[in-house]
């Protein structure tokens, strides 16, 4: 698996991949990493290699940062060539745009544990969760793709061929929470919004994390099964 991050500091890069790396190692999947922001050219996948594109604080519709369009073209080419891509949050938004979908600011933000509704007939791919969310923007399901789940706000997952895009964060682990709480608090202060209840989010995370880890492994396994079809 090739894991693509976005300008993540080396000291937290391993943490920010969350469940992905232990899941891959448990399944005997070899790993490579790349950073779309700092790498002038993303590598071509090896034969049979799957790709995971992670989240970012940036907006997929920001045209002022050349790396965003460059990564999107890379995703479009890989998908057309049959490479299986797992796009997570920003990565899912990039996958949507690469396949003709759109990404816009949502009517409101989703931060914290979010219940989603699997689409009829697709409960085995994305469970109801709750899943951890952290996003202001939302994607549409590209033409020809299949919506797998949604929340009251937006589509939460879609499958396009062998590729899977999700708006939530299946990779999330409790170790990722403190810096995300800091980032969210900064955002809310800048917007003059109501303060975040850190203690409540932390308590909920402690309660839900074990089941969420099992759900994440099931989702990753489902992605790989489709990738190998």
Structure description:
The strands form 2 sheets. This protein has an 8-stranded mixed beta sheet with strand order 2-1-3-4-10-9-8-6, sandwiched between helices. The chain contains 6 helices and 10 strands, in the order βααββαβαββββββαα. It starts with a strand and ends with a helix. The chain has 229 residues and is an alpha/beta fold. The relative contact order is 0.15. The chain is 37% helix and 23% strand. Helix 3 packs across helix 4. The mean pLDDT is 93. It has a single domain, classed as Class I glutamine amidotransferase (GATase) domain (Rossmann fold, 3-Layer(aba) Sandwich). The chain has helices at residues 10-16, 20-26, 66-80, 90-98, 177-191, 198-228; strands at 2-5, 32-35, 51-53, 85-88, 103-114, 117-118, 131-139, 146-150, 155-160, 163-166. Strand 8 and strand 9 form a beta hairpin.
Number of E-type strands = 10
pLDDT averaged over residues: 93
Main sheet specs: 8 strands, mixed
How many DSSP H or I helices? 6
Q: Write the H/E string, N to C.
A: EHHEEHEHEEEEEEHH
Low-pLDDT windows of residues:
none
**Number of domain modules:** 1
CATH superfamily: Class I glutamine amidotransferase (GATase) domain
């Amino acid at each position: 698996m090739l894991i693509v991050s976005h300008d993540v500091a080396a000291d937290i890069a391993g943490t920010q991949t969350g469940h992905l790396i232990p899941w891959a190692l448990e399944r005997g999947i070899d790993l490579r990493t790349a950073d779309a922001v700092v790498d002038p050219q993303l590598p071509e996948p090896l034969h049979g290699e799957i790709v995971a594109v992670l989240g970012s604080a940036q907006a997929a519709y920001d045209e002022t940062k050349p790396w965003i369009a460059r990564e999107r073209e890379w995703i479009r080419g890989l998908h057309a060539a049959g490479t299986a891509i797992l796009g997570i949050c920003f990565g899912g938004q990039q996958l949507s745009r690469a396949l003709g979908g759109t990404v816009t600011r949502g009517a409101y933000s989703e931060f914290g544990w979010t219940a989603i509704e699997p689409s009829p007939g697709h409960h085995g791919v994305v469970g109801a969760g709750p899943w951890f969310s952290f996003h202001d923007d939302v994607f549409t399901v590209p033409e020809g793709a299949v919506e797998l789940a949604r929340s009251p706000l937006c589509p939460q997952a879609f499958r396009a061929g062998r590729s899977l895009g999700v708006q939530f964060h299946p990779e999330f682990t409790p170790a990722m929470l403190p810096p995300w709480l800091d980032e969210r608090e900064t955002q809310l202060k800048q917007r003059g919004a109501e303060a975040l209840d850190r203690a409540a989010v932390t308590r909920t995370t402690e309660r839900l994390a074990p089941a969420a880890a099992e759900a994440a492994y099931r989702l990753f396994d489902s992605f790989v099964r489709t990738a190998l079809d």
